[in-house]
Amino acid sequence: MQTKIAANAHAMKRWLGKAEVVLGNHSDRLNAINIFPVADGDTGTNLYLTVRAAVTALGGTTPDSTETGNDVGAVLSRAGQAAMEQARGNSGTLFAVFLCAAAEPLNGKSRLSAPLLATALNRAQIRAWSALSEPVAGTMLSVLEAAANAAQAVEAAQNGDDSNHALGLSLDAVVDAAYQAVVRTEDELAQLHEARVVDAGGVGMLLVLDCLRSAVLGEELQDELLDGLHGYKLQDPHIHEHMPADDGVEVMCTISLSPLNAAILRQRLDEMGDSVIMSQVGGAQGPEDDDEPAVEPSYRWRVHVHVPDPEPAVALIRSLGEPTDIAVSQLAVPSGAAQDTAAQDKEVPGDPGQPRHEF
């Protein structure tokens, strides 16, 4: 096993490239079982498009660029920033948060190790839980938490061993723990239990983590992981066919705000809607002129919320700053659940999924 292991910057690019392909192939089935937090049938599409943005920022899986060199953290940070800027939906936004947070302890490192993996996954799961105003167990969050706990357990058992062997053990444990967490989601959320399906975002994260294992260990993806997941067989129907349509909309944007205004925005969005996610994009932004009086630094934030009507949310956001890339998407599933798949999007110009109105 050790002779196959490659945990350098190029392996991280290979990981995200694999994830793009796998999520594209599985987008329809992920969409089919997507019922939480709303049954809008787009989790697979959103994850695919967000990962695709990360891969595009790296120039695909070509050899290391001069900008990132052999720095594992720099590669993932660059990919994470691009993913955050173009994140789609709850699942895509949480993936972007995961990637940005995981990159932080890896900055300046030339290779991934079991101790670093444990630290990165722990940072990522904490950041993902905190990005949501009302985090819920039985979702992608639970899968991330289980993966992080497994990596920490292996790291402790191996006494901080940074060898390739320990990394292999850790990646195996991470994927196994993620799988078990996905299976548990069906009984952790009432909506999933009633529909007899597992959480779509959780399955997406399992696929992402298995792609990491495959890319680093040089082994095949473990397709058998999906065989027993309820609702995931190709012949299973889209779960949305017998569910009422959701009349709300999803509002997303990027905006520069001070910490105080960010807190105000989160609080007021919580009052206005639900599924509020706010996560920082990049570092602090100060005044360009050093002679200017000291002011509270601002940060760029990716904002996501579900609301009944977009106008009050957009007005609120504009009252606090100048947002970019404001997009509003209907939460209702297209009639007949006949969304284009992400795989089709690779061949047909334009993004798949539901119509988005740009402000």
Salient structural properties:
Alpha-Beta Plaits, 2 domains, single chain, globular, 51% helix, 359 residues, disordered C terminus, alpha+beta, five-stranded antiparallel sheet, 5 strands
Care to give the gist of this entry?
Helices cover 51% and strands 11% of the residues. It is an alpha+beta fold.
Describe the structure.
This protein has a five-stranded antiparallel beta sheet with strand order 2-3-1-4-5, with helices on both faces. With 359 residues, it is an alpha+beta fold. It is built from twelve helices and five strands. Mean pLDDT is 85; it is low at 61-66 and 335-359. The N and C termini lie far apart (52 Å). It folds into two domains: 9-242, DhaL domain (Serine Threonine Protein Phosphatase 5, Tetratricopeptide repeat), CATH 1.25.40; 249-330, Alpha-Beta Plaits (2-Layer Sandwich).
Topology:
Layout: H1 9-32, H2 43-57, H3 72-85, H4 89-103, H5 114-131, H6 140-157, H7 164-188, H8 190-195, H9 200-217, E1 249-257, H10 259-272, E2 274-285, E3 298-307, H11 310-320, E4 324-330, H12 342-345, E5 356-358
Antiparallel strand pairs: 1-3, 1-4, 2-3, 4-5
